[in-house]
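in:
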């Protein structure tokens, strides 16, 4: 299965970000990708305005998502991303969406909010309450995660136990002392300890590192982007998953129960 990772810098104006997204969709589809994964929070971003998520949030039937859905009707490729959506109150959800052939086929509301490193995502964002169901594309079962979720091995293990072949991780990973190393370590660990592919896509604006990457089920980074906007491609292999799980049967050998939400 051929996948595309569309790393870009999210700006303040949602219409401009939408044009970027539609352009990436067109290019990835022309290269016969079956899935395009985009970063976290792609409606709008302004590091000088922490409340931009409130100001820019749209409903799922708003103009941003509606335009992506309409574009997806013209191509066989699926697209995954996260956007901030309105809740009807003075807060928003950080929703990881998968859109395919004119429909939202998956919607996961981020569980673990980024209240760390002197930041507080929960000031404006309401956390989710459910483990996401797996979504199947091109014969692969994908588990959905979002950015800070990667620091919590329970979610990845639950998705793997549910039957995931791969994880999708849109992110906006903030720069900082040791943070790039954290990204590499955590993305690799979640793949290796669950013998799943990890597809991690980072926003690459003023504050965030980019560094989108694909790690295979044995912890091998088969693709990594730099700090600039990029559209890059990788191939997922069922045979590689089967090989990893044959020689490293950690999912069969585990002694702990499948994680549940508290």
């Amino acid at each position: 299965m051929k996948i595309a990772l569309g790393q870009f810098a999210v700006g303040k104006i949602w219409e401009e970000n939408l044009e970027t997204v539609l352009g990436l969709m067109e290019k990835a589809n022309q290269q016969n990708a079956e899935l395009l994964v985009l970063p976290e929070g792609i409606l709008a971003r302004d590091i000088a305005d922490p409340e931009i998520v409130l100001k820019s949030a749209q409903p799922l039937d708003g103009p941003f998502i509606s335009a992506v859905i309409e574009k997806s009707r013209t191509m066989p490729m699926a697209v995954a991303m996260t956007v901030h959506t309105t809740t009807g109150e003075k807060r928003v959800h950080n929703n990881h969406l998968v859109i395919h052939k004119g429909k939202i086929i998956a919607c996961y509301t981020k569980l673990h909010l980024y209240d760390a490193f002197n930041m507080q995502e929960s000031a404006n964002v309401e956390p989710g309450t459910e483990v996401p169901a797996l979504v199947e594309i091109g014969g692969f079962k994908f588990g959905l995660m979002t950015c800070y979720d990667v620091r919590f091995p329970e979610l990845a293990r639950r998705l793997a136990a549910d039957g995931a072949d791969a994880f999708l991780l849109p992110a906006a990973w903030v720069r900082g002392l040791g943070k790039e190393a954290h990204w590499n370590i955590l993305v690799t660990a979640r793949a290796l300890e669950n013998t799943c592919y990890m597809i991690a896509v980072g926003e690459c604006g003023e504050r965030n590192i980019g560094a989108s990457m694909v790690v295979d089920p044995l912890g091998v980074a088969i693709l990594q982007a730099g700090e600039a906007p990029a559209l890059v491609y990788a191939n997922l292999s069922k045979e590689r998953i089967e090989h990893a799980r044959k020689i490293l049967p950690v999912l069969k050998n585990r002694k702990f129960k499948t994680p549940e939400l508290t």
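note: The first strand starts at residue 2 and ends at 7.
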